Amino acid sequence: MVEALHHGRRYLDIAWLWIRAAWAYPASFIMLTIGNGMITGLDFVGLWIMFSHLDDLAGFTLPEVAFLYGAGSVGLGIADTLIGSVERIGTYVRTGRLDQMLTKPVPLLVQVCADQFTLRRLGRITQALVVFGWASTYVDWTPLRVLVTGSMIVSGAAVFFGLFVGFSCIQFWTTDATEFANAFTYGGATVTQYPLSIFPREVMVALTFVIPVAFVNWYPALFVLGRDDPFGMPAWLQFASPLAAVVIVASSLLVWRTGVRHYTSTGS
Fold this sequence. Notes:
This protein is 70% helix and 0% strand. It is built from 13 helices and no strands.
């Protein structure tokens, strides 16, 4: 526990350096933050326009789809803000910067995740929170649903953390597989914006047991929204997001350790 707090402090120290650097140009920072929020907001605008021609999407109304969209986007936004830099690991390998990081008395993963930290990604989180807040006004809240919702947000961010780290590690072997990793991270995030009932059952099973993005928002949202699972999956899955998050984070850290051990420097 003490060691984890120490690593967290080192992360904050590095992140604060990048925040101070960004605030040296406040106008640029503000415009980039607003622009980031507006660009990501176009995703929901597309959904809104689609519902102008539909009464529901696979049985889900606009507020229910907005709830899924908001929850998934908040989870992605948190993970992307905190550790999104890990997807640059291939660049660090090619340029030899990873060698420099290995000589410093701070865990490599902490350095990589905090490197080039930027708060402008808060635009994505803010936009998602607005949508999520609006959708939440249509929910019949109970104490248990509040608890499950809080767990959903935290677990969703943790699942994306695992996906970012795990798939970025492929670059230890290929040095240039960013787009491949993005297909599972940002691609998985796009999938969470829609009810999984629009996909065949085989896809839903894969999104549960292979790339478990269904635990980001789908299963807990079914409980919060009071919806029956259209695929007839076990009801306990609606409460299993924390367990799925622990499994995928632990797996990603194991892959990270394997990748670091495989790394043999650029030789330059």
